[in-house]
Design a protein that fits this description.
The chain is built from seven helices and eleven strands. By secondary structure, it is α/β, with parallel strands linked by helices. Residues 13, 16, 18, 36, 38-44 line the site of one adenosine-5'-diphosphate. Keywords: ATP-binding, Nucleotide-binding, Transport.
Length: 229
């Protein structure tokens, strides 16, 4: 059974059809990268999965439960889906530690269990020694590592990445795309990743979803997509 099923989803803004019947299934533990030029509908698709907007047609199922259709949606906080944004969106007044622990604290997880989980994430994302800093005291790459740690802390069923490396310089992008793919595979995290950067998509994805003008142009492994004209 697929983890995520997107079935004939369409979305229109006023007179513009941003998505025209997009369908794809994703299995648990898979990393899918959605690739395509600006305006092809990547963010719109991600927002539908995240619960930030409603489809006009079709439905989205997570673990075989309908989470979105034209009739309504399960609210974002009840989906088991976390998102990492291009601009990190950390809480600037909270320490690195408190940012990462936030989702666990509001779920009233046991304090020693929170400490263990946060320690594991600090190790995994190479953030040791930065626990007490505030986000404005970190580099862009470090902020994005904290945002990823925060999103992983609650062990979401699905992690959404919206152009996660776009604000970083080229050297960091190359370093982090390899590292992120390693971490997600190690943890078995299911990832739906949106980018306009082909190299990032090819480096991270098990499968690519290549979009064009609101439609799916190609779906396949990087190898399959690369060898097609
Ligand atoms: P991408 O993420 O691939 O750049 P988007 O999903 O953001 O594409 O946008 C798809 C199309 O829908 C674009 O033509 C964009 O201008 C349009 N669009 C996106 N959001 C809105 C909106 N809130 N209102 C009107 N048009 C929108
Ligand atoms: P990206 O290309 O990184 O996805 P965009 O610049 O397309 O980002 O969109 C950024 C935000 O602006 C999104 O929330 C999108 O829904 C909104 N947006 C995009 N195009 C339009 C539009 N034509 N009218 C209104 N809002 C839009």
């Amino acid at each position: 059974l697929p983890l995520l099923q997107i079935k004939g989803v369409a979305k229109r803004y006023d007179s513009h059809q941003a998505l025209k019947t997009v369908s794809i299934d994703m299995r648990k533990g898979e990393i899918i990268s959605v690739l395509g030029p600006s305006g092809c509908g990547k963010s719109t698709l991600l927002q539908l999965i995240a619960g930030l907007s409603l489809p006009d047609e079709g439905e989205i199922l997570l673990d075989d439960k309908v989470i979105a259709s034209s009739k309504g949606m399960l609210p974002p906080e009840k989906r088991g889906v976390n998102m990492v944004f291009q601009d990190y969106a950390l809480w600037p007044h909270m320490s690195v530690l408190d940012n990462i622990a936030y989702g666990l604290t509001i779920r009233k997880m046991d304090r020693s269990a929170i400490r263990d989980r946060v320690t594991e994430l600090l190790d995994l994302l190479q953030l040791n020694g930065l626990e007490k800093r505030l986000p404005p005291q970190l580099s862009g790459g470090q902020q994005q590592r904290v945002a990823i740690a925060r999103a992983l802390a609650t062990q979401p069923a699905l992690l959404l990445l919206d152009e996660p490396l776009s604000n970083l310089d080229m050297r960091l992008r190359i370093e982090m795309r390899t590292e992120m793919a390693y971490i997600f595979r190690k943890l078995g995290t299911s990832v739906f990743h949106v980018t306009h950067d082909p190299e990032e998509a090819f480096a991270m994805a098990d499968r690519l979803l290549i979009m064009r003008e609101g439609e799916v142009d190609q779906v396949g492994t990087p190898q399959q997509c690369y060898s097609r004209p």
